[in-house]
Amino acid sequence: MAAPRYLKAFKDLLASSPGFADLPEIELESYGNKSDRAAVILQASIVENILQGTIEKKTRPLSRDLRERLFEGNGPLSSFANKINVAYALGVFADVFRHDLDLIRELRNGFAHTRHPTTFSTPQVAEVCRCLKLPDNLQLSVVPDSYYAYFLQKVADQAHPRTRFTVACHTISAHLLVIWPDLEAGHLDLLP
């Protein structure tokens, strides 16, 4: 049975990629949002979508049907964890990125499913964010310029759990979207 037109249109929207014109609104949602829960879920979802796109670039061209069978429902790459494992096995990123991706996934799942009031100030959340490695790696970490405008001015603390989470998410996204494709194309020197 075919999905109703309105549901198909909604799924098409979800499957499409945002454009450059969408960036200011995405940044406002990601960095300017006062809700820690919304920030974690949104930023982790962006990382997961970029990771999926990176995996897709490593495969042969996928038909819509095959993409759905791989990445949706009970497909073998429908979960964030499976995407991380496959990308790691393909050599897309090093151990430090896998470590932080796993913590981002855990935080996203926790914020999405807990019934407890949960923020970056929750001691258990703060401890997980403290264990993120990318924010401490000055050679690899990337702080988004717009993050300063929206949130960092208020926090002004690089050790703040929200800052650490955002820097880890943004660093992974930047490496997947820009740095590794340039490295593979021979446009950059060897990355540590």
Spell out the blueprint of helices and strands.
Layout: H1 5-15, H2 23-31, H3 36-57, H4 64-71, H5 80-89, H6 95-113, H7 123-130, H8 145-155, H9 161-184
- What is the succession of H and E elements? HHHHHHHHH
| Level-2 CATH architecture | Up-down Bundle
Instruction: Tell me, rounded to a whole number, the average pLDDT.
Output: 82
Oligomer: single chain
Radius of gyration over all CA atoms, rounded: 17 Å
How many β-strand stretches? 0
Distance between the termini: 51 Å
The CATH topology annotation reads as Four Helix Bundle (Hemerythrin (Met), subunit A)
CATH superfamily: Nucleotidyltransferases  domain 2
Describe the structure.
It is built from nine helices and no strands. It has 192 residues and is mainly alpha-helical.
Considering the chains and any ligands shown, give keywords for the structure:
192 residues, Four Helix Bundle (Hemerythrin (Met), subunit A), 64% helix, mainly alpha, 9 helices
In short:
Helices cover about 65% and strands about 0% of the residues. The chain has a single domain, classed as Nucleotidyltransferases  domain 2 (Four Helix Bundle (Hemerythrin (Met), subunit A), Up-down Bundle), CATH 1.20.120.
